[in-house]
Amino acid sequence: MLRLRQLTAPGASALAVLEVSGGDASAFLHSLGVSTLPSEGQLRLARLRLGRGLREQALLVATRRGYEIQTHGNPLLIRAILDGAPPQATAPAAASVETWGQSILRVARAIRGQYALRLALFQLGREGSTGLLQDLTEGGSMDRFLCDCETALSRADAVRACLRPHRIVLRGRVNSGKSTLFNVLVGRERVRTGPKPALTRDPVWEEILYRDRVLWIVDTAGESEGLQDLDLSAEGLGRREGDNSDLVLWLHSNLETNESLPREQEALLLETHHPRPDIGRLHLDLLRLDPSALRAAVLDRVLDRLGLVELPPLAPAPLDEGMERGLRWLLDQPDRQKAARRLLAEGPPPS
Ligand SMILES: Nc1nc2c(ncn2[C@@H]2O[C@H](COP(=O)(O)OP(=O)(O)O)[C@@H](O)[C@H]2O)c(=O)[nH]1
Ligand SMILES: [Mg+2]
């Protein structure tokens, strides 16, 4: 059997990498005019003899799986190489690059943060989920595959937590310091603050990157008694934000009145609220503390509570829902080798 797989997206770069594997790999390379094949771990410069008198230099790399042909990425040239192979050998491979590879790229494009990006790109390599499947379809050990698969799935949560933004909503009574803290967390004077109540009406949010995590910080209107119309609906909006958050930071000041200034000595208590457990109380004076120390003190607690302190290991994990669904589906199939081939060729079945 011959298997051809494009490891680089067609037409996307100056260099194309084609993987040739299976029992007929060496026969196919000989048919392209390569006389001596490199041994595993070695590489060799070869001159490929293609159809219509076309000649092209390529680097041949022998890998654990088979051979890689690394050559110029011109789509016509690649087509000429693929045309030399039996037609059925190439179709599923190209489809698998489309389905799995591109969905990873789509995820990677939307990602912020160095670490998260490395994590996502790591999945592109042959160590990722596609690699797991490929090993299985090529007669790899079923036990090892199942074990790798379970590990990948169990890491999926950690990976997702690293990639998706978390919403942190600031709530508390009017004048408790929500907007002041918001500005500190986003690192600039983004919203108005002051002793006058109801300076904040509509929720305001900003995305920040802290220790390679994406956090959305949301400032809301404060709670108070005797609110009318506009302020009442603003309070409701704030409550709704809180319900849709990963963490609510509940601010208290020990002087929650309109005549709260000057209060240089006042402490500010910060604690969380439903749905997550308390982050504990932090006694902070927002106006006196150095802003970067204040920011770190609050955000470190936040990461800790959200379980985001530990970065997941750079290891294979299904990145998007489709992949995860695919692997779960596969584990349920009676004939997993056959199911894996189908998954590689067509991607995960519709849910
Ligand atoms: N001394 C002191 N003043 C604060 C503190 N936090 C906020 N303030 C002041 O309290 C007033 C209300 O703050 P603001 O952030 O607008 O409250 P919000 O209504 O909860 O958004 C502003 O004049 C702030 O400068 C604090 O920790 N210490
Ligand atoms: Mg405010």
Number of helices: 11
The CATH level-2 architecture of one domain is identified as 3-Layer(aba) Sandwich
Helix proportion: 40-55%
Radius of gyration: 28 Å
Instruction: Give the overall average pLDDT.
Output: 78
Order of helices and strands: EEHEEEHHHHHEHEEHEEEHHH
Regarding CATH, which class of one domain?
A: Alpha Beta
- Biggest sheet, in brief? 6 strands, mixed
Low-pLDDT regions: 88-98, 257-266
Count all strands and give the number. 11
Largest sheet: spatial strand order: 7-8-6-9-10-11
Shape annotation: elongated
Ligands and ions found:
guanosine-5'-diphosphate, magnesium ion
The class by helix and strand makeup works out as: alpha+beta
- Report how far apart the termini are: 32 Å
- What is the CATH T-level topology of one domain? Rossmann fold
> How large is the share of residues in beta strands?
15-25%
List keywords for this structure.
binds magnesium ion; 5-stranded antiparallel β-sheet; elongated; binds guanosine-5'-diphosphate; 11 strands; alpha+beta; Rossmann fold; Gyrase A, domain 2; 6-stranded mixed β-sheet; 40% helix; 351 residues; 11 helices
Task: Describe the 3D structure.
With 351 residues, the protein is of the alpha+beta class. Among the domains are: 85 residues, Probable tRNA modification gtpase trme, domain 1 (Gyrase A, domain 2, 2-Layer Sandwich); 141 residues, 3-Layer(aba) Sandwich (Rossmann fold). The chain contains 11 helices and 11 strands. It has a 6-stranded mixed β-sheet with strand order 7-8-6-9-10-11, sandwiched between helices. The chain has a 5-stranded antiparallel β-sheet with strand order 1-2-5-4-3. Helix 3 packs across helix 11, helix 5 packs across helix 11 and helix 10 packs antiparallel against helix 11. The longest helix has 23 residues. The radius of gyration is 28 Å and the shape is elongated. The chain binds guanosine-5'-diphosphate and magnesium ion. The site of magnesium ion has 4 residues, from helix 7.
